[in-house]
Structures are given as structure tokens and as C-alpha cells.
Amino acid sequence: MTTSTTLWVTFTLLVIVMLAVDLGLNRKSHRVSFKEALSWSLIWLGLALAFNIGIYFMLGKQQALEFFTGYLIEKALAVDNLFVFIMIFTVFGVRDELQARVLKWGILGALVMRVIFIFLGAELLQRFQWLFYIFGAVLLYTAWKMAFGVGTEIKPEQNLLVRLASRLLPMTRKIRGDWFIVRRRGIWVASPLLVVLLMVESCDLVFALDSIPAIFAITLDPFIVLTSNVFAIMGLRSLYFLLAGVMGMFIYLKYGISFILAFVGVKMILIMLGVHVPISISLTVIVLSLVTAIVWSLYAVRSGAASGSPLQNSGLPDGA
Predict the structure, then answer these.
(1) How many CA atoms lie within 13 Å of 98's alpha carbon, on the beta-carbon side?
(2) pLDDT at 314 over 90
(3) How many CA atoms lie within 13 A of 117 on its CB side?
(4) Annotated domain spans of the chain
(5) Membrane-spanning regions, if any (predicted)?
(6) 317: closest CA among 89, 148, 106?
(7) Among 33, 36, 63, which Cα is nearest to 279's?
(8) Is the dihedral of CA 188, 191, 197, 202 positive or negative?
(9) Helix, strand and coil percent figures for the chain, each rounded to 5
(10) Are 58 and 3 in contact (CB under 8 A)?
(11) Would you tell me which of 153, 238, 250, 289 could form a disulfide with 256, CB atoms 3.0–4.6 Å apart?
């Protein structure tokens, strides 16, 4: 068995086992405590770092740096996505125990979409290298929109998946129980919880279109792209409950992430111009951007704690 095959088999088995454990332990809807969220966050982080070490010894330093850089990019973008999830749950009044259920199935859907997009994107970039210009421009536009665009507003009635579901299935007005679809009096009825899940899935689709081009600027190796994406996504649910109560403190995080996207977008364009930015520089820029944004946010919140003004610009709904 070759080194590459061994890593593929190890990665696949690891994901299957961890998904089985995660889904088995979370079959019933329940409120995720801070201790549980912290434990699972550390488990997923530990697995990612252990796998990264395995890549280092089996594939070399370059691939290990590419994996770690890609993992940081995807994890940073995932954290930003949590703001949107908070707004969705707030708009629909979803209780904590039901949020865990929605995120569980939402993340499974995200994994499927990422696998499809990654292999499709890798194939397209190998055949049509001019797509680097397109992907770079998309990232630059996304960076500008994230930094200077207006806040996200949740409008379920404008979501294509929600509109389609409402035409196919009658829907109850209130969330009752933890089911998405149930058969009553001979007909299938959908819960508003299904609308929440569809909103989350559609957001995951948009996030994938933004984040996958970013990691292709780091490497075109499908194995590195896929594994770094999957490890970043798998811990997203536990990270959500770990950070949900303090997300409003990271008021400048979006600027750090938008700078990373802009940097990666420029890097993709430079690739087509024959300029290669070393992976060590990319990793340094990403780490410094995140650290600066977090420290800046915490300092601003602490300085403005008395008046509360910095939190008013966080973009989160009241009570989130």
C-alpha cells in the first residue's frame, strides 16, 4: 500500500468512526453545555493536529504546511459563518437543544457539498488555469463585501430552497418537538425547523463557494484540500456552542478574515503572473491577521465596556 493510499484510508476510516460516535452520542436533542462543547472542540482540534503530524512524516514538510494553512483558512471562515447561524436561530426562535440537531444535519450536508465542489474545482483548475483569475476576483469581491458591505439580513421568503419546500409540503406555524417532517392524518407536514435547516444548508452552499477557492490558492492537491476542509467543518458544531455566548466580543474579526480573503485572492492572481508566494509567508499572514483582529476586538470591547458602543456594531441581533 502506498503512502498516499494509507493516508486516504486512514482519513476515511477516521471520519466514518468519528461521525458514527458523534451521531450516536447525539441521537436525542439536548442542550450542549460549555463543557461538552469544549471537550469536542479539543477532540477535533487534536485529531486535526495529529493528522497534520502524520502528513508531515509521510508526505513531507511542504504538504504539512499546506494542510495547516488550509485548515486555518477554513476554520477562520467557519467562525465567521457562525454569526449567520446565530442570526438564523434568533430569527426563528430555535431553542438551544434544537440548534444542535439542526447543526448536526446541516454540517453533514456541508460535508457532502464540499466533497463535490473540491473534486470538481480541482479538475477545472487543472484543465482551465485561467479560472485562477476568476476565483481570485471572487475572493477579492467577497473580501470587500465582508469588510464594507451592509449587515446580513435573514429573509426566509427569498430563499429558493425554502420557497420550494413550502410549495411541496404544508407547514405548521410553530416548532413542535424536534422533527423536520412528520406524517399526520395521512399527509406529510413540515415543521418550521425544516425551514431553519434549509436556511443553514443554503448558507453552507454559499460559504463553500467562498471558501473553497481560498484554499486552492494554497494547494491544488485534492487530498490536502479535502482533508483540511473536512477537519475544519467537523468541529464546527461544538465550536458554535463554545463561542455562541461570546461571539459579540469579536467585533473586528470580519476585518481580519476579509484581509485574509483579499490576500489569498491576490495570491491566486499572482500565480497566473508567474509569482509564487511561499507557503510560510501565507501562513504568517493568516496567523497575524487572525491574532490582530482578535486582540483588537477584545481591546475595543474592554475599552468600550462602559458605554457598550463597540458591541452595537457587531452585526448580531439583540440577545444573540
Answers:
(1) 20
(2) no
(3) 22
(4) 3-151+208-313
(5) 6-25, 37-59, 71-93, 105-124, 130-148, 186-209, 215-240, 252-273, 279-301
(6) 89
(7) 63
(8) positive
(9) 75, 5, 20
(10) yes
(11) 289
CA distance 184 to 163: 22
Task: Report the C-alpha gap between 75 and 234 in whole angstroms.
Answer: 10
Q: Where are the alpha helices (DSSP H) in 31-176?
A: 34-59, 61-92, 96-127, 131-148, 160-168
Q: Tens digits of per-residue pLDDT, 145-187?
A: 878 865 555 566 666 667 777 777 777 777 776 777 777 777 7
102, 200 in Cβ contact below 8 A?
yes
Q: Which helix (H) or strand (E) holds 181?
A: strand 181-184
Among residues 152, 307, 121, the alpha carbon closest in space to that of 218 is found at: 121
Residues 6 or more apart whose CB falls under 8 angstroms from that of 305 comprise none
The answer to whether 193 and 175 are in contact (CB under 8 A) is: yes
